[in-house]
Structure formats: C-alpha cells, structure tokens
Amino acid sequence: MHSRWRIVGAVALVPVAVLVLVSLDLLDAADKIASVIGALAGVAALVLAWSQWSGRSASGDPLERLAGLVADRWTAEAGRRGLTGVRRMAVGWRRSDRELGVALDEVFRGDPQPVGPGVVDDLVALWRRLPSGRLVVTGGPGAGKTSAAVLFTCALLDGREAGDPVPVLVDAVGWRPGAGSFESWLGRTVADRYGRRVGAREIEGLIRSGRVVPVLDGFDEMRPVDRPRLMAAFRERPRLGVVLTSRIGEYAATVADGDPLLEALVVELEPLAPNRVAGYLTAGQAGGTQRWAPVRRRLTGDGGGTLRAVLSNPLMAYLARTVYRRPGSRPEELAGFGRRGEMERRLLAGYLPVIYDEPERPARWLTFLAGSLQRRGETSFAWWRLTGLVDRPSRLARVVNALIGALPPAVVAATVFEWRFAVLVGWVLFSAGYLIDGAAAARPWRVRFRRRAFLTSIAGGLAAMLPLALGGMLPPVGGPVSLAVVTAVLAGLAVWLARVPLGFIGGRLRWWRRVEDPGTRLPVPGAAGPALAYLCGLVLLIPVFDEEPLASPLDGVAVALLVLFLIGLPGGLLYGLAVGFVERVPEAELHGPDLVLRDDRSVLWMPPVLMVATFGVMAAVAEAWLPAGASIRVSLTFALMFGLWVWSAMVVLPGASWITFTVVRSQLAVRGDLPWRLMEFLAGAADRGVLRRDGAVYRFRHERLQTYLAGGVTEPLPGAQN
Q1: Three-state SS at 420
Q2: Is-contact 284 86, C-beta < 8 A?
Q3: CA 226 to CA 258: how far, in whole Å?
C-alpha cells in the first residue's frame, strides 16, 4: 500500500519538473513540446501500470487462500485469549429451554435428534448435524460467547479438508441496512480485514455458493433497530448457514418483536462447574497445584458459595487465573471474600498490573479512556471522535484546521496576484474555517475515484464557459437575435435541470411547486451541477455580450473552441480533481483503525498534489504551443486557486479528521491523559486482551472492565447461585 502511494507521488512530480524546466527556459520550443508530450506519456504509462498492479489479485484458489488467512488470524487470537492447550476453559452449553427458537422437528427437518448438553468444543460437531447450518449461541454477560465463536472458528478449520466451507468471524455490529446486500457487506468486511489478499467479489461469490460460513459475534451490540432487519435478511436467504452469538435478553427481545431465525438451533452457555473451574485455574502454571489448593478446596467443599458464584462466570475465572498466574502470588486470598462484589473488584483491580510490566501510565490512559466513554454513554472508541472525549472543544484544533484549509489557495494566489489579494483570500478562508468549527469532524475521508463526480465536474467547467463561447460564436453567424434566443432557451433548460439544488429558493414560490416538486429525482443524473455552472457563467459573463462581435464566423468558432477547451476544460478538470477523488467513508466500510487513519490522512495531500501536477502540465503545454500562453496560465491559476478552495471547503474546513485527531491527541498527551503514540498503544492493548478491535473502533474486553476503570458501580455478574 505504501509503495503504491510512493508511485503516485513520483508520478505527480514529473509534470512539476517539466514545468520548472520550461519556466527556466532550459529547453527550446521544439524540445518543450517533445518534453511535455513525453512527460504526459510517461505519466499515463505509470498511472496505467499502477492501476493494473493495484488491481491484481493473488493467484490460486480464493477459498483456500481465505482459509489460510482466517486460520492464521484466529489461531493467534485463540492463543492470546488463553483458549488453546491445557489452559482451555471448558464452558458448557445446553439447548435453550426459553422461547427463543423453533422446535427440533423444524430444526432437523422432520427428523428430530437429541441435542446436548456438551462443552464448547462440541459445537462444531453439533453444527455439522444441522441441515440448515444455523446455530445461535446465547449467554449472559461474561459467559464466554466471543470465546465460543473463536473456538468454533478454529475447530471448524482444524478439521477442514480442501473444498470444505470456511468460517469467517466478524462483528455483527458493523452491519447496516443501507450497506447493500448481506453478501456484499460481508465480502467487503472480510476483504478489508485481511488486507484485500482475497477480493471482496471473490468472497461474495463464495458466500452465495455456500462455501463461506458467517460467524457473527455480538448480535446484542447492534443497534436495536438493526437487529430485526438482520434477522429479516437471514429469512430472505433460507439456504445461508450462519452462526450467531448474542446475550439472552437482546435476542429474546428481537424474537419477541418478530420471528425466530428459521431452522436455527438455539443453545445457551452455562456457568462453569466447580471441577472445571478448578482444572482451568491450575493447568499450565508453575506450582499451580500448591498455590491454588485452598481455592480448590473451597470450590468443591462447603462454605464456598461466594467463590463458586464468582468463578462460575468465565470472565471472572479468566481474571482470577490471569491475576494470580505468577509464582509467589497468593490466590488463597480469594477464599476470604464474603461478598461477590468485593471479590470481583479485587480481580478487576489486579488485572492491569499483571498485564503491563509498568502499569502506572497504561492504567492512567485506560482509565481516562474508560471514564470519557462512560460519561458519554458509549462503549466504543473511534479515533476520529477523539475530540468528543474532551470536556470542551479544542480551539487549537479549529485554528489548525482553518489554517491548513486557507494556506494552499492563498499561496497559489500569491504567485500571480498582489500579496494583498493573497492575504484577503487566506483571511476569508481562515475565518470561514474557524467559524465552521472543523474540529467537530464527522466520518473520516478516503481517496476514492468517483467517476460521476469527476465527469460532472469537467462538464461543469465546459458549461461555465459556454455563455462566453456562444457570445463569441453566434453574433457573427446569426446576429444578436440568435444569441438572445439560444441563451434564453439554455437558461430555461438550466433552471429546469437545477431545480433540485435551487429548490430551497423555488420551493417557496407557488408556481414552482406546480411545475415540479424540488425533491423529485432528476431526469438526467448529474445534470444539476453543470446546469448551475452554466447559470453562474451566464451571470458573470453578461458584460462580455456588450462587446463588438467578431467580423468572421470562422473567428467566432475559433474563439468559442479556445474558450471551451483552453479555459473551461482545464478548469473543470482541476475542479474534478478536487471533488472526484475524495469521499466520506460509508459507515458500513469502516474497517481497521490504522487503514481508516491512513486513508483519511492521504486526502490531505493527494488531491492538492494531483491539482498542482495537472496545472504544471497544462501550463507547460500552453506556453510551449500557444502564443498567448501567459494569459492561459493566468486563467489556469484562477482555476487552480478555485479547485484548491473547493478542496479546502469540502475536506478541511468542515472537519479533517486526521488534523483534529493529531491536535487533540497532542493536547491530551501533554496533559498525560493519553500517550503520544495512541494508535500503537491501542493496538498493543488489543494484543494483550485488554481491548478488542471491532471494525475501525476499539472496545474494552468487557463492559465490566470499562465500568470499573471509569469508577462506576457494578452489579455482580451472573453465575451460579450462592
């Protein structure tokens, strides 16, 4: 990925170098033309080669490639979670006796079979018996649902043969009804998660053919309005096998408001039995049998009701094993707690000191993060929403956003016009950016070619110069009357095509509403922009119509072509480079915090570099070929300044996420509330098991840990009864 952007940067420098050579008169006229043509050809060749290279996909069977990627990822994750080897936690399950699923006769399609109970390791064998391939794993908070999903994924891959289905574990919270089909959303999600080493369309095809098994974790963490819509999407795909994990209450509420998942078996995770807890606590630890002996006796004997109740919850059992894993620790102190809440707080308090060798600063940073999320009632941290975690908006972030947005257009203006004009341009843009409050950033940006926006921009540049072109061409041909008639017809057509963006004005007029509702769909998609550009050009270029017409019709046609293709086309191209290569990342495509951060940062340099490089090429061509090249260059400078202003107004001033994030993070780092290298710290916390990645955001391993670090009051987690 980084090499690709280096190629783009190198390509952009070629026309700039050509412009420098031309401006220094180091080449004669013939060499200028040859050099410019060669530069353009080289740029085109490099861009074509880059696009072909970037679009290549790895060779081999995509199913087997996907299987290898999934196995590598989740085998490592299982090891980090302590789910492998002798440390594996034997969480039990049974068929749910709640009204959450359909009857066994429907699950097994008329041939009901006995189901469970068993342990999580048996879920793969159970799933293979289900004709529909649909399994719902429910449980209470901290019951081990995510661990069950990880173990299911690893176990299904362990016993897999070539050609067998591949499980893909993703977070259900990333799905949105407007994200396209379920297959396309899952394909994009999986492709982004594995660095696009398997294409999204390849994965989508595998899903439709039944060779990919979606394992959706965290159904309960979805927005309540999205849960029944996801269930409806499954009902529309009766042949799609799926594994779903959810808390009991959220899944029950969804089923109560609609229909259960068709032909799905619903199982419920059970609290850990005392003998299984005892085996998990001591396995694989140096001197574990001796150190944990008092706890084992209390678990299996009399008087250990509180201990059994706490450690029967898989989350608390994991914390107990982690906190007392080092030789010399004293786990027998757990037997002295008489209240569940006290024991749970002791385990939560001892977690970070054993995860980090120097826990003081990480604990402070995580405590600040947890407290900020808790005050806002949120459970996920997104880097582009960092400014929302501070009590007051950052004025410094607003100043930096406005300054970066105003600087490029002002610099371009200073190269051609007086410094007073450049200062005026910069001050206007800076003031607008500060008043807009760019620190309140929405979703981040990304570099993505939008063909319609790019072509519409070019058409808009031509349309803006059309009144001037017609003013020079029509009077010599048909006289002033022809110009008036054509202008009136085109103006009326432009008003009609631009009725949607003009609706906020025309909608107030009764006659306008009779003509057309401003909110209706345009008959010609993308025509509103060029229509508005024509109207603006008509208003600005009216004084030109008062000039003496050209004597020769041929001269009029020549002037019209020059105006359109030497001013309108380059101006539209520069505008297209400003708006046609950037877009807000759709919420459903926010995958990977580092990837989203890098994409947002690239928006700050990619469009300006493209515009400056294109300006350099066009200015060099104009000066090499045309007698009036200097005048054309001034017009191009106007177009470049306008393009940079549009880029600034579109991307930077309304909120450049990376700029705001960098400024606010620096302020918090100076105060000691967060580290300077925040993204590295968050990734490290996820690798240690303190946090977990959920698409492009981070969450605490369990909301109980977030509540504790934030200083909130917690109720005991569900487990076995005292």
Answers
A1: helix
A2: yes
A3: 13
Residue in the structure block whose two tokens are 């085996």: 279
Q: Catalogue the long-range contacts made by 327-335 (C-beta closer than 8 Å, 24 or more residues apart).
A: 327/286, 327/287, 327/291, 329/291, 330/291, 331/281, 331/291, 331/292, 331/294, 331/295, 332/291, 332/294, 332/295, 334/295, 334/307, 335/294, 335/295, 335/298, 335/304, 335/307
Tokens 């059992």 -> residue = 317
348 and 705 Cβ atoms separated by less than 8 Å: yes
Give the start-end residues of each E strand in 39-133. 92-95, 118-119
pLDDT tens-digit series, residues 355-401: 898 889 999 999 999 998 888 888 888 888 888 777 665 677 778 87
Q: Which residues of the chain have pLDDT under 70?
A: 1-60, 85-87, 179, 195-196, 302-303, 391-394, 416, 433, 436-442, 471-483, 496-526, 540-557, 559, 587-588, 591, 622-635, 650-655, 712-722
Instruction: Sort strands 212-217 and 242-247 into parallel, antiparallel or unpaired.
Output: parallel
Find, among 681, 676, 682, the residue nearest to 698 by Cα: 682
Bridge-based pairing of strands 166-171 and 445-447 is unpaired
Is residue 600 within 8 A of residue 696, CB to CB? The reply is no
In this structure, are residues 143 and 91 in contact, taking their beta carbons and an 8 Å threshold?
A: yes
- Alpha-carbon span 116 to 669, nearest angstrom: 52
This model's pTM is above 0.90: no
Retrieve residue 631's tokens.
Answer: 């005048």
Tokens coding 119:
């342990």
As a whole number of angstroms, the distance between CA 113 and CA 105 comes to 8
Tell me the CA distances in angstroms from 312 to 90, 235, 502, 690, 705, one per residue in order: 11, 36, 65, 21, 18
Both tokens assigned to 384: 């582009």
Q: How far apart are CA 294 and CA 337, in angstroms?
A: 13
Return the H-helix or E-strand segment holding 114.
none
Nearest to 640 by CA among 403, 437, 447, 417: 417
Strand partners, 700: 691
Looking at residue 442, what is its pLDDT? 63
Those residues whose C-beta lies under 8 Å from the C-beta of residue 187, and which sit 6 or more positions away, are 200, 201, 202, 203, 204, 207
Q: What are phi and psi of 590, to 5 degrees?
A: -85, 90
Instruction: Report CA 324 to chain centroid distance, whole Å.
Output: 39
Sign of torsion, CA 344 346 348 350? negative
Read off the tokens for 189: 């999600």
- Which pair of tokens denotes residue 178? 């407007």
Of 336, 287, 347, nearest to 311 by C-alpha is 347
Q: pLDDT at position 538, please? A: 74
At a CB cut-off of 8 Å and minimum separation 6, what does 539 contact? none
State how beta strands 134-139 and 242-247 pair. Answer: parallel
> Strand pairing of 212-217 and 166-171?
parallel
Distance of CA 679 to the CA centre of its chain: 15
- Among candidates 172, 251, 166, which has minimal Cα distance to 202? 166
DSSP strand pairing (380-381 vs 697-700): antiparallel
Instruction: Classify each residue of 600-632 as buried b or exposed e, where b means 16 or more C-beta atoms within 10 Å of its C-beta.
Output: bbbbbebbbbbbbbbbbbbbbbbbbeeeebeeb
Output the CA torsion 275→278→279→280 (10° steps). Answer: 120
Q: In terms of Cα–Cα distance, which of 374, 371, 317 is closest to 343?
A: 317
pLDDT of res. 56: 43
Q: Is 67 exposed, middle or buried (0-12, 13-18, 19+ CB in 10 A)?
A: buried
Q: Quote the CA–CA distance of 235 and 229 in Å, as a whole number.
A: 10
